[in-house]
Amino acid sequence: MGNFIYLVIAILTLVLVVKLLAWPMKVLLRLLINGILGYVLLLLVNVFGKSIGVYIPTNALSCLIAGIFGVPGVLFLIIFNKFF
């Protein structure tokens, strides 16, 4: 009987640890997807934006903004580039 209680406690602890670790993995996966999408959009804007005079330099700050915020970040960079 004592071993059964320890087994149940171990299983519940394992489930709790897996649930706690799953949340940061979702956040990291979302940041990774946003980063890749933002960088690809930044490159596309630079390739196709040359004809209309839009060029966003690919530096650490612009990659960070595009990576964290994704599409809205790239739109912010385009608007910021046009007005400033």
Automatic annotation (TrEMBL):
<feature type="transmembrane region" description="Helical">
    <location>
        <begin position="31"/>
        <end position="49"/>
    </location>
</feature>
<dbReference type="InterPro" id="IPR010001">
    <property type="entry name" value="BofA"/>
</dbReference>
<keyword id="KW-1133">Transmembrane helix</keyword>
<protein>
    <submittedName>
        <fullName>Sigma-K factor processing regulatory protein BOFA</fullName>
    </submittedName>
</protein>
<feature type="transmembrane region" description="Helical">
    <location>
        <begin position="55"/>
        <end position="80"/>
    </location>
</feature>
<keyword id="KW-0812">Transmembrane</keyword>
<feature type="transmembrane region" description="Helical">
    <location>
        <begin position="6"/>
        <end position="24"/>
    </location>
</feature>
<dbReference type="Pfam" id="PF07441">
    <property type="entry name" value="BofA"/>
</dbReference>
<keyword id="KW-0472">Membrane</keyword>
